[in-house]
Amino acid sequence: MRLFVYGTLKSRYKNNALLVKLKVRYCGKSTTRGRFCLGFHLYPYLTERCPPYLKGRVVIECYSIRRDKIAAIDRYEDMRIYRQETVKDSSNKKGVVYMMRKRNPTKPIKFKKPIRGKLCF
Fold it and tell me: Does a structural domain hold residue 110?
């Protein structure tokens, strides 16, 4: 299966070590086909619940991962906060991305603004 990552699991961040440990295969960079918002509060997250002017295509890295190894990603992502969602990338390939379950309204949320329609953490 394909795993799309957009935050601290990307290759230039230290948490990418988890993907290296799991021996997943890097497939390349892409963007989401759909438009989402990239938020940040202690950690980056993807959401559809945001003002339309903040939505953009999110820059992602694609990894090929065996289904039996996805549980390790679930533990890392904390499934109380995130949920798996199947989305398509710009080449119309499906992959799993972790999206925010719900926003906590008592905490300040910062959204990145799209640059030329793209969002990148």
Answer: no
For 67, residues 6+ apart whose C-beta sits below 8 A from its C-beta are: 1
Q: Residue 36: is it exposed, middle or buried by C-beta count within 10 angstroms (0-12/13-18/19+)? A: buried
User: Based on the structure, what is the number of domains in the chain?
Assistant: 1
DSSP 70: H
Q: Does residue 105 register a pLDDT over 50?
A: no
Predicted TM-score (pTM) of this structure: 0.87
CATH of the domain at 6: 3.10.490.10
**Rg (the chain; Cα; Å):** 14
- At 11 the three-state DSSP class reads coil
Note the pLDDT tens digit of each residue in 3-57. 999 999 999 999 999 999 999 999 999 999 988 988 887 788 888 888 888 889 9
Expressed as residue numbers, the domain containing 64 is 2-103
